[in-house]
Amino acid sequence: MSKAKTQALLKVVELIPMFSSVGQENAARVVRACEVQHLDDGAILCRVREPSDALYILLSGGLTVLSESGVDLAQIEPVAPVGEMGMLTRQPRSATVRAHQRSTVLSLRKAVFEGLMRKHLAISRQVHQNVLTTLAARVVDSQQNHDTQLKSLQSLRRRLEAARAESASLLRTDG
Known about the structure:
Blueprint: H1 3-15, H2 24-33, E1 35-39, E2 44-46, E3 54-60, E4 63-66, E5 72-76, E6 80-82, H3 84-89, E7 96-99, E8 103-109, H4 110-119, H5 121-174
Antiparallel strand pairs: 1-8, 2-7, 3-6, 3-8, 4-5, 4-7
Helix pairs in contact: 1-2, 4-5
């Protein structure tokens, strides 16, 4: 791999939250552990319920996340990770991911990743810290979303009660 290409991939890896702050030397180790994979338009990257045996970083193109029933759930744009949490938690894939255009991904196999983590404790410590930080942020976001939805539901209930009261009042005055 050319030095320019390696430098570009280093910048990409350092943008992935899981690998942020691992340092350039360790980011280079991660890049060397990855394989470049090309996907044609319509190719399946991973399927729901399959083992989470790799994480991917989208370099170019675009991916679509599909539910088990085939409903589009999300679009993934370049410089985004795919499958990192499932690989870490050993949970099966939660969705199918398909290329919606010709795409290129970096692929990091689970066994290679685990070997990297065992051999380089600094990477392991930073990755685990990053994952915990990401999960904590997701919990906060989820709680805030829950609170917002609960307030919206309460508002809708008040409006429904007001509409019922108005309807009952109208029926009494018409009768």
